[in-house]
Design a protein that fits this description.
Blueprint: H1 3-6, H2 14-33, E1 38-44, H3 54-70, E2 76-84, E3 87-94, H4 98-111, E4 118-123, H5 149-155, H6 160-196, H7 217-240, H8 246-268, H9 275-295, E5 299-300, H10 301-312, H11 329-337, H12 341-347, H13 351-366, H14 371-385, H15 389-395, H16 397-410, H17 419-433, H18 438-455, E6 459-460
Parallel strand pairs: 5-6
Antiparallel strand pairs: 1-3, 1-4, 2-3
Length: about 450
């Protein structure tokens, strides 16, 4: 991302800085009067006339979190946070030895990934600011050249533009990595919860392999273990390439998806466990990364769905390229019946997961039902509502339509007492008919992914 977009905030003046410095000194004296053995003053070292912007607030939050983690248990007496255009600041009155606290805060400044931006003073009850040199510690280094920071600062050795570019890179890299870790964790949970939800009619679960003779529960675990890395890369691709047109981003995501497919087949010995889901996750993870790059997180589900539509629509071109791409069951069904499967779902912004699956899963979970039991009921709702190209491929259109109608009639009967038993009966029926609602299973995984993103405050789902 362009560094100028990261440094989007109000410009301040030298007078603003001096006025804030005066208020800070008064606030420090006031807090020290109330007791405590040490006062920690924490702000960010952001050069230039723009100190406050979204990533700066997030960086302060990361520093504060690190600070809270290193304080001795029960030592925090009082905390004051100040949010102004001159930057976010924190004052922390603690009941702990100031020398010990100084050494801990130096570690935070030296070893945290953003520590070079942290400006942490430790003040004694007498008002003395403990210096690094008093402890035989090295002076802080310049962000760019490794000289002492105070020397470069006084001589203005580096331009504000150079410093901002470097800081923007630090912030973007840190928060992209942090967000990508959280998103890939949610993706891993979604895949593992989907295959673990039991019983699922005709599908691999913890009871049996459903209508699949070439795979079992552990095949899915093998596949999931290698795919999560690729989902993380797809998210990072959306973030890093946020400025690209949808068509170009889609092609890059598709390339990553094909790499993921190769890893899947390698891990499973040639068995297709997640090919359709890889496509859907490429679009969704890419869109999520693109949304977070521009606005941080959480972002609204509707914003992400809009980006999914823009990216997903590029896949509809596959239906117009007969003979130019490998023929699949999905393309054959589209040409014969006009049912677009995963491509159409992505191009529409994943309505089945967002408008059918997620509300149903939320509703069942809100009753106190286990995630397993809520998930298998959500699956049946998806079977009832969404045409499944895998069901059509295995049983034909008439059979697939009958099973949708059957699922709709069964839903009201899924009481807490009888639901699991009825689904187990349906599982046996599907296995006998060699039916597998694989498309609905993928939608369940996407639904779980959205739910976990919402729970982790990466996504706001109204």
């Amino acid at each position: 991302m362009e560094y100028t977009k990261i440094f989007a905030g109000r410009q301040i003046t030298a007078e603003d800085i001096l006025a804030r410095r005066s208020r800070r000194a008064a606030e420090q004296k006031e807090m020290l009067r109330t007791g405590g053995k040490a006062l920690i003053s924490f702000c960010l070292n952001i050069p230039g006339d723009i100190k406050q912007f979204p990533m700066a607030e997030d960086a302060f939050g990361a520093g504060r979190e690190g600070l809270m983690a290193l304080l001795p248990p029960g030592s925090l007496l009082e905390e004051k946070l100040v949010l102004e255009d001159t930057g976010t600041e924190g004052l922390f009155l603690v009941d702990a030895d100031p020398v010990q606290i100084k050494r801990l805060t130096v570690d935070l400044e030296e070893y945290h990934p953003l520590g070079r931006l942290f400006d942490i003073d430790v003040i004694t009850p007498e008002g003395e600011i403990l210096s690094r040199r008093a402890f035989g510690l090295p002076a802080r280094k310049c962000l760019l050249c490794g000289q002492e920071a105070r020397i470069c600062g006084r001589s203005r050795a580096h331009s504000i533009e150079e410093l901002r570019r470097h800081i923007a890179g630090m912030l973007d890299d840190y928060f992209r990595r942090q967000a990508a870790d959280r998103v890939s964790s949610c993706a891993a949970r979604a895949l593992l919860y989907e295959v673990s939800a039991t019983p699922k009619p005709g599908l691999v679960d913890r009871n049996n392999s459903g209508s699949h003779r070439d795979m079992d529960y552990f095949t899915f675990l093998d596949s999931s273990s290698v795919l999560v890395y690729h989902f993380r890369e797809m998210y990072c691709m959306g973030w890093e390439q946020a400025e690209l047109p949808a068509e170009e981003l889609f092609q890059r995501l598709r390339y990553q998806g094909r790499q993921a497919e190769r890893e899947m087949f390698r891990a499973t010995g040639g068995v297709n466990t997640h090919k359709g889901l890889v496509f859907s996750m490429a679009v969704l993870c890419g869109a999520l990364g693109k949304a977070h790059a521009g606005a941080g997180h959480p972002v609204s589900l509707e914003e992400v769905r809009t980006l999914c539509r823009e990216i997903g629509e590029c896949a509809l071109q596959d239906f117009e390229q007969e003979g130019k791409i490998p023929e699949t069951a999905g393309t054959r069904i589209y040409r014969k019946l006009g049912i677009g499967g995963a491509r159409a779902e992505a191009a529409a912004g994943f309505p089945a997961a967002a408008e059918v699956g997620l509300p149903v899963l939320r509703r069942w979970c809100s009753t106190g039902m286990t995630v397993n039991d809520a998930a298998v009921r959500t699956l049946l709702s998806l079977i009832a509502e969404v045409p499944d190209t895998n069901m059509i491929h295995r049983g034909g259109l008439a059979e697939a339509e009958y099973r949708r109608e059957q699922a709709g009639k069964l839903l009201p009967k899924l009481t807490p007492e009888k639901g699991i038993g009825l689904l187990a009966d349906l599982d046996r029926e599907y296995i006998q008919k060699n039916l597998s609602p694989g498309g609905s299973a993928d939608l369940l995984a996407l639904t779980l992914f959205l739910k976990f993103l919402e729970d982790d405050r990466m996504l706001e789902c109204m």
